[in-house]
Predict the structure.
Amino acid sequence: MRIVCISDTHSLHDQIEGIPHGDVLIHAGDLTGSGRIPAGFEAVEWLSQLPHRHKILIAGNHDFCFEDYSAWMREHCERCEVIYLEDESTVIDGVKFHGSPWTPRFRDMAYNADPALAAEKMRLVPADTDVLITHGPPRGVMDYVPEDDLHVGCLSVEARIPFLKSLKAHVFGHIHEGYGILEKGGVVYVNASTCTERYKPTNPPIVIDI
């Protein structure tokens, strides 16, 4: 299965060129910049027009429309044939994907989670998950913010991964500075942030085969 990974497009999708073909397209959150419903609708429609047979989407900390108007956004995703996952799983051709939008609390953003809530959400990830999609990274993996000299990934995500015995890939975004791909402990980690730290949507999609 060929998986094409993007994230953090922040309503700048019209500027993105050359998304490779694949079996599954994953968008790991921050589909919008403003988080407003019209921006969310438009970005979902853009996703739906891409040629990939399956499109999977989770929300991010900018995507207030998904947190505040979940039913409307979910209905729009279904109408556009985009698979929206919020602490849910889906199976495609025998591969189990699980998506979760929560990130450690930062300012007053969408899907902020304190440690107890983050741990609760990570306990929902099935042990037989093949591809984990979270908006933010685990602690210590492509989560470094040079300006603050901090690793800002989620401890609860890091703690859950060793219990996911089938895990082949973990796709996330959120930390634009961490863009890239890394193999560690038999798992391929993908920080698919499309936008750079200066919010330029120039980082190429990352393609993985599982």
